[in-house]
Amino acid sequence: MRYLSEIAAAWRPLLAATLGMGTGMSIIGTITSAIAPSLVADVGWPKAQFAMIGTLGLVTALAMPFIGRLADLFGVKLTALIGIVAMPLAMLGFSLNGGSFDIYLAVYIFQGVICVTTTATVYTRLVVQHIVHARGLGLAIAACGPALFAAIGGPVINEYVEANGWAATYRMLAVFTACAGLVVFMLIPSGRAHAVLAAEPGRRARDDYPEIFRTRAFWLLLGAMYLCNLPLTLILVQLKMLVLDQGISGEGASIMFTALAVGMLLGRFVTGVALDRFAPQVVSFVMLALPGLGLFVLASSWDAPAVVTAAIFSLGFAVGAEGDILAFLVARHFRTAIYSSVLGLLTGVCSLAAASGAALLSWTLARTGSFDTFLVTVGVSVLAGALLLLMLRKGPQVEEALGEPVPA
Known about the structure:
Blueprint: H1 2-9, H2 11-22, H3 28-43, H4 47-51, H5 57-95, H6 101-114, H7 120-130, H8 135-164, H9 166-187, H10 205-214, H11 216-228, H12 232-236, H13 239-245, H14 251-277, H15 280-299, H16 305-333, H17 339-368, H18 372-390
Helix pairs in contact: 2-7, 2-8, 2-9, 3-8, 5-6, 5-7, 5-9, 5-17, 7-8, 7-17, 8-9, 8-14, 8-16, 11-16, 11-17, 11-18, 14-15, 14-16, 15-16, 15-18, 16-17
């Protein structure tokens, strides 16, 4: 009863985190996927030119550590406000590009640097600050925000752009993100109730970062997250091509995408509850080693639809689990006062790993014409990364007294 009552007591910051992540920077992929075909066809940009924007993920990776530091220094409310104001401006800027790719690119960079204050690096701090015993479940609930937006908002945006065009759709999204941002800002607690730990006044980067870099857990998490995120580009960008390569097409391919989505949702909740109840390093190993087996299966000659579906499900399960695992382990091994600083660094590493994986996939496909070499390579890397998490010391979780002042 205490487990669920803690979730109920923290409903306001939990709702703020869930809605904030579900209407912030994390939804840009869904928006771009729905609008891009109409935009590119209307303004006449070459598809190869438009595909260049994918490389700008590295800009976001570089911004993440700074965003995390801001959240630790000034709290969630002030840090998130930056992105809450910037998101509608970015949507409006996209609507006014007038067919200029340079303007679109400039707005995209602005969005990729400024709007990341509305991502998990900032909003999960609310969960960590206000929930201790049910922290894994709380993080799982917050992580469902973007998935719910994709499921509900994706089709709505697609229909709207078909009926009204890309410029009108961006203007509609400017109004939507402004209204949603206002609600999120009002939900973020300004008071001190349920707060876990006070950010220490006067703390400086030269005090905190040496502490982070001296911590064994940071380097284990860095290595694990890099190795486990190498196949991310395959899951997010190349999945349909991979499925077709397995000899599955048509209705079968749609089933694979459903299996991926179901796996992600189940991965979040199963992992969240398991982290609260069992040894976190063991749970992390099991959940993140699962896709390694799936990758080996996809590289094998076992290409029956049921087998491929199970392998795709395992990939989705791990993607869903990973967000919970990273946030939970950072909260477990580091003081809450530096939580977002650490998470920002490690999130940047995840983005770097995804870009590295994309380069590796391109290189292996150019030389072999097959996904198999990449699948085996990243399968080994995922298992190695999961093994690193077993090396985390159990260590006592710091359960700070509720009620101490924290910048919200």
